[in-house]
């Protein structure tokens, strides 16, 4: 994985973009999967591909760089994600990926404590329809 990350970092289009690997193995992995809402306890690192640029005319090149890096790096993924890295265009499927098997339990809690979905401006876990 590191070799591939370095390869894509070498093709960054904008000086404001980056590829970051956060090591997270250790205590996180020793806890059972249902210990807390945090999902993906089998991950050993977090991959963050962040594309940022200044000029609208650079949109296509930068977006394609980020997407190409992710297409190539995805094979190393657990399939999960970190909830705070999700963008506005990513929907329910990616929210499920962030919480994994804990999503259903969180939806039950949301249904009990926020059935009207008042707290919905974040990456929302919708209450169950009763």
Describe the structure concisely.
With 130 residues, this protein is an alpha+beta fold.
Describe this structure in words.
The protein is an alpha+beta fold and 130 residues long. The protein has two domains: 2-79, Vanillyl-alcohol Oxidase, Chain A, domain 3 (3-Layer(aba) Sandwich); 87-130. Helices cover 35% and strands 9% of the residues. It has five helices and two strands. The protein has helices at residues 2-9, 27-30, 59-73, 92-99, 103-113, and strands at 18-23, 45-50. It has a two-stranded antiparallel ribbon. The longest helix is centred in the middle third of the chain and has 15 residues, at 59-73. The chain is flat, with a radius of gyration of 17 Å.
Estimated structural class: alpha+beta
| DSSP summary: helix tally | 5
What is the helix/strand order? HEHEHHH
- What distance separates the N and C termini? 44 Å
Give the helices and strands, then pairings.
Elements: H1 2-9, E1 18-23, H2 27-30, E2 45-50, H3 59-73, H4 92-99, H5 103-113
Antiparallel strand pairs: 1-2
Attribute tags:
130 residues; alpha+beta; Vanillyl-alcohol Oxidase, Chain A, domain 3; 2 domains; two-stranded antiparallel sheet; 5 helices; 2 strands; 35% helix
């Amino acid at each position: 994985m590191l070799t591939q990350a370095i390869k894509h970092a070498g093709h960054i289009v904008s000086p404001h973009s980056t590829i970051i690997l956060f090591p997270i193995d250790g205590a996180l992995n020793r806890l059972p999967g249902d210990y807390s809402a945090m999902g993906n306890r089998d991950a050993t690192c977090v991959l963050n591909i962040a594309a940022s640029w200044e000029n609208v005319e650079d949109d296509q090149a930068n977006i394609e760089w980020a997407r190409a890096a992710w297409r190539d790096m995805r094979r190393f993924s657990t399939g999960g994600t970190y909830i705070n890295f999700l963008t506005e265009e990513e929907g329910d499927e990616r929210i499920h990926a962030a919480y994994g098997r804990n999503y259903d339990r969180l939806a039950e809690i949301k249904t009990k404590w926020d059935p009207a979905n008042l707290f919905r401006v974040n990456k929302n876990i919708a209450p169950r329809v009763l």
